[in-house]
Amino acid sequence: MIINNFLIRYCTENARVYRILSALALLFIVFWLNSCSDFTEIDTPVSQLNTAAVFEEKNTAYSAMANVFAQMRDNGMLTGKTTGIQKEMGLYADELTWYGNSAQSSANFFTNTLIPTHPTLATWWNNSYSQIYAANAVIEGVAASTKLLQADKEQLTGEAKFARAFLHFYVLQLWGNVPYITGTDYTYNSMVKRLPTAEVYAKIIEDLESAIKLLPEEYISQTRVRPNSYVAQALLARVYLYAGMWPEAANSASAVLNKTDIYTWVTELNAVFLKGSSATIWQYAPRTPTRNTDEGTTYIFNGGPPNSVALTNSLVNAFEANDQRKAKWIRSISKGSITWYHAYKYKKTGSNSPQVEFSIVLRLAEMYLIRSEARARQGELSNAKDDLNLIRNTAGLGNTSAVTQDEILAAILHERQVELFSEFGHRFFDLRRFDALDRTLSGVKADWNNTDNLLPLPQTELNLNPNIGPQNPGY
Amino acid sequence: MKNISLNKGIRAMLYSLIIGLFLTPLLVMARIPLPKSISQQQNITGTVRDSQGVLPGVTVSIQGKSIGTITDYQGKYSITATATDVLVFSFVGYSTLNIPIAGRTVVSLQLQEDATNLQEVKVNAGYYSVKESERTGSISRITSKDIETQPVTNVLAAMQGRMAGVNITQQTGTGGGGFNIQIRGQNSVRRGGNSPLYIIDGVPYSSEEIGNGMSMSVMSMNTNPLNNINPIDIESLEVLKDADATAIYGSRGANGVVLITTKKGKKGKTRFSASVAQGTGSVPHFMKMMNTEQYLAMRAEAFANDGITEYPESAYDINGTWDQTRSTNWQKELMGGTSKITNINGSISGGSEETQFMLSGTYGKETTVLPGDFGYNRANVRSSINHASADQRFKISFTGGYGIQNNDQPSTDLTTEAWRLAPNAPALYDAEGNLNWENNTFENPLRYLKGLSKSKTHDLVANTALSYNLLENIEIKSSFGYTDLNHHESSTFPSTMYNPSLGIGSETSRIFYTDTKRNSWIIEPQLNWKPTLGVVKTELLIGSAFQSQNNTSLSVQSSGFSSNSMIYNPAAATNTSILGFDESVYKYQSFFGRANFNLKERYIINLTGRRDGSSRFGAGKRFGWFGAVGAAWLFSREKLLQDNTVLSFGKLRASYGTTGNDQIGNYQFLNTYTPSNANYDGVMGLVPSRLYNSSFGWETNKKLEVAIETGFLKDRIFLTAAWYRNRSSDQLVGIPLPGTAGFTEIQSNLNASVENRGVELTLHTLNVKTTDFNWSTTINFAASKNKLRSFPDLESSTYSNSYVIGQPLNIVKVYHYTGIDPETGIYNFEDVNGDGILTEPEDKQIVKDLNPAYFGGIQNTVRFQRWQFDFLFSFVKQQNYNVPRTLGVAGTMNNQSVAIVDRWQSPGDVASSQLYTSGANGTAENALYQYAASDAGITDASFIKLKNVSISYEFSERWLKNVNCKATVEGQNVFTITGYKGADPEFAGYGFLPPLRIITVGLQFNF
């Protein structure tokens, strides 16, 4: 423009030149505009990374996968925070009593009065599928990557498939038939249908078998926070057990139990939940290098009355006399004549340093219990009792007195209650597997009814996806 | 707030216009050597005034001769004439006077404002200006005259109550705090998408919030950069409202446009002006709280109700630990101080025919009403230079302003604390003058003052415009603008905020800080052509704009210091975490045009259009067309009405068009990962930023307006009535998706529609007009209705509990309060779905509209000789939260409003408040929270406020030779008439210092 001005001034007095120049100036503006049509193109900001670029570099690709585990740890159903299934499904079954405000959302779990608009349902559902989306994005990103090494591709794909299977497994447990999402195309994913339970199990098993092949035998981290093939194997054992595939469940559990150069049984109960425990198969890495577990924060209270949850009397009374787990994994708090109990597997609350405990997701005791049950179901009663007794002996108890298959199975259900209490809602799922929900909870929970074995689908999901219905029975 | 150099806004504006438009030929002629002396030539001098004081810029010429001059800044002129000549005094907006010299050498006089001629005022419409009478769009305007009477530091405060349809609310009384503005209601479903566009001297100024809620914790909202604009520098401020006025700003015009024009230098001898004002600010009204007697009675009754006979150990107020005869009004004690306000302005201006300049500086200081040494300081410097070539064809102008603000406040607002404290709580200081913790029973409120919220802002806005007249009616022009903002803010929470006996050390001390840098440049080449096509006067404009804005911000939390004295040194912290980091680029490109056809100054059509491209959209969606058509018919100029003695002016105007909105933040269309700030095994996570969708585009806003403007009795009564309807669609919000999609929403254009419709009335009357006494009144009134017309899948979206189709956007859904249960004495609510329990959202089915039903202002200006008296009442009809009734559970160790004295005591009682409880009655406690979230928790908060009052006296120039001197007393928020029982009905902020009553006394000098 300035140059134009000078030109124009230079040519003063000449009207014809004026007119030509004014037309030129006009053209100039229009031309400038058109020539700059890419002016509004901008680069990717430094605070974000192009999706394709994330998977062209090892560090960023691992960061993408690390975030899936971090999200599982922090948000949704699998977190140890107060919002996860560990507490809520404990309340829903007969492990925990609610002492908080009756208007808080946890109260509905305790009283089994969930409705489809309950906010926690949407939170669990949405977070689960969001984490599944992120895992799928890793699988797709890694597949399209040209620069990642094969070993890294296998580790990441294996981890992502493991995470995808893990998340779907719990979505299946909570809601029954659910969709199995294996891609990131939202136009497809927002119109998906629910699959029959057996098909979901088949897909979970397919993913875990693939993960077992892809993942290395050794942990890539010292603290067992990123899965190796045995982590996938251990989850697979749980999946087979839940799916009623007994020989496979026993074999998968054995595969982990036989890996004795990595996993060794810990007999000191107070050492089971320490971060370096050799009986740990998989644990979450804490949020900061100084933190302890969210479970600790969720369960521990130091004065009465508790303001959130305490263990139910039925659980506390379920321990046999001399069970060391009652002494070491439970703590009592008294005020006046009243005594409350809280889970004390983790001794420290999250913010209480130094760091000694990580949140354990899969541990050896469950493998013994899985194998025990799978063997019992197949009639291998003696072998079943061996595994069960190992657990009992560690807790300071004598061998089981159960003899018949039914007695052994009942003993296993009981053992699972006192061994796995307050961990990942095991109790509720076990009761359902043993078809014991109604008889166990009807007397204890006033509002329990037989359709409460599954949670209602979130109302938002029913509203937004016409293919997802119908709602689970009873809601 | 005194002005720097110009105390007559409109006149000063006209002054510059006259120089630019009318006087040039006169002045050129004036430089032609006068014809050789004729008989009895003498120098005639004098001063021209108007009803409000001296009048600069008046053209003084001699009838029948081509000789003329203009009055200078003090209204003085000097002209050579013969004793028999007739002097002609003319000035836009005033009746021309012809005065025979009749042998005198001094001819001083007063010009009378001619209301009709106010229609000649040129109004800034952004890329062009338009004569008031020929305006086709809806533009509200205030000038320095209105701004200077107000002791305010924020430009939005200066607009409050003065413009129809412009709703402004103050968010806090803390110095440097923010304001909210809504021009004709909320258009976007996104709460953050409703800001107007601000243009300062042609440069777009981003009003996007800076900083972070945690790093300026004392404020109710994030820092608003508009505080950087110094109101005293403003010459005029226009608000563009309808499609005709805003469509030339295309995509950014949806929420209206605020045009700010700063003061410029004037030709003539160098002028100095200075003003000093000193004043005070205080909280105008406190909530009425219980006294000690009422409070302790409440506590005793609460424990009795709960069946507690032995007061708990922690009930210090009533168990005998604290003196039960003490009585402190904590609001007075903690917020009842007086803030000292000082404002100093100075300016130098002047210039020659070709070059004019102005330099000005302002310093302002405002201390706090809290007990402590806090304050808000600001300094601004501004310069402007205009230059024109001798032939007036080439012009260059430069304006630049630089502002510095320093704000030091405590990091916690004490308002809630002042309400909460028991009236018999102990003294703040012990005998040694240290903070009194009363043997560890008293959480001393002054502990909060140990933490500080500090901010420092440096801001530069500069603009250069070059223009050249190619031909007489063709001008090419380009403006270049630059803005640069640097902002640092921090809030500290040191361990000294806690009782020392708790043994909390500096390892717990925390600081939050945010650094923001923002700069932008803009280039706007334009071409103006004003041909006359036959009988049609035509104005054509085409132009283009290129803008780029860079933004960087970093928010950090640091904690764990070896010593509190190291709290501002992040290197001394044991833990540092990044709360947020953003570095973004926003680019913007446009092509715009205007065609205005004016037939016989009676029929006017105005076409405007713009094609905009924004980097906030993906390829293929970046560009959008916007445009409007406006038309005006000046029916009073038709033959039938031309000589009507009653109707002096009549205009019907209408406009329709589309504008847009791209306020969605940058990079929403990219397929990226973002750091999640989640650590896993030493690896920082990366999370998919969003579902990838690059196919969304502009939000569109269709505006329709019809208005009539009528003047009666020579425009002594002037009424403007406008009806408008704005509809926003293609809303840029997340479209709800089922969870299985991985994200619950995707950024897209949602087919939701929001409508704002309303009427706006402005009535200006000149009630009395004599030489010594003038009285004029301006009333503005706006009533509007906001409505969400449609919103697909609202029930499943994140907005399901905040919006209802068919209702306004600014609503709350609440329980229905049904009274106090006469048996239990507890608040009862309607169980809408009849399931026996009160649940959210099922039972929250009552909709309460928090938009004002109507609002406006009544402004009066009365002049009597040298006295001038201005006052503005603003009024709002609205509902707001019933703060006094929801201050917490009555009976616990928190003081309550006196309204709570009327409570239920025994079965059968009829009362307005439920029974007291010490906290042991969980049902009552729960009921109080439900009450706050019920229709009883919202109450009428309509008010009439004496927003502004100003009295000034202009001293005779005989007292101070050649110095024009004026003394003023000004007040802001003087008093409020309202039935609302809270601190201030204007403001929705809970627990923040209410807007202060400010009174200042000032002197200003011009010489």
UniProtKB/TrEMBL annotation, chain A:
Question: Which is a Gene Ontology cellular component entry for this protein?
Answer: cell outer membrane
Which keywords annotate this record? Cell outer membrane, Membrane, Signal
Indicate the segments forming the SusD-like N-terminal domain, all copies: 105-241
> Quick check: keyword Membrane in the entry?
yes
Pfam families associated with the record: SusD-like_3, SusD_RagB
Signal found in the keyword field = yes
State the InterPro entries in the record.
SusD-like_N, SusD_RagB_dom, TPR-like_helical_dom_sf
* RagB/SusD domain residues: 331-475
Give its localization: Cell outer membrane
Record's family? Belongs to the SusD family.
Record protein name field: SusD family protein
TrEMBL record, chain B:
Residues folding into a coiled coil are: none
Specify the TonB-dependent receptor-like beta-barrel domain's residue ranges.
415-973
Q: Where is the TonB-dependent receptor plug domain?
A: 133-257
Protein topology in the membrane: Multi-pass membrane protein
| Xref: SUPFAM superfamilies | Carboxypeptidase regulatory domain-like (SSF49464), Porins (SSF56935)
User: Per the record, GO CC terms?
Assistant: cell outer membrane
Write out the transmembrane intervals.
12-34
Record's keyword annotation contains Protein transport: no
Q: Say where the protein is mainly found.
A: membrane
User: What keywords tag this UniProt record?
Assistant: Cell outer membrane, Membrane, Receptor, Signal, TonB box, Transmembrane, Transmembrane beta strand, Transmembrane helix, Transport
| Gene3D superfamilies given in the database record | TonB-dependent receptor, beta-barrel domain, TonB-dependent receptor, plug domain
InterPro entries listed in its UniProt record? Beta-barrel_TonB, Beta-barrel_TonB_sf, CarboxyPept-like_regulatory, Plug_dom, Plug_dom_sf, TonB-dep_OMP_SusC/RagA, TonB-dep_OMP_SusC/RagA_CS, TonB-dep_rcpt-like
Compartments where located:
Cell outer membrane
Task: Select a single GO molecular function from the record's annotations and give it.
Answer: siderophore uptake transmembrane transporter activity
Q: Name one GO biological process term.
A: siderophore transmembrane transport
> Per its UniProt record, what Pfam families does this chain match?
CarbopepD_reg_2 (PF13715), Plug (PF07715), TonB_dep_Rec_b-barrel (PF00593)
The UniProt entry's sequence similarity note says: Belongs to the TonB-dependent receptor family.
State the name under which the record lists this protein: TonB-linked outer membrane protein, SusC/RagA family
Q: Which organism is it from?
A: Flavobacterium gillisiae
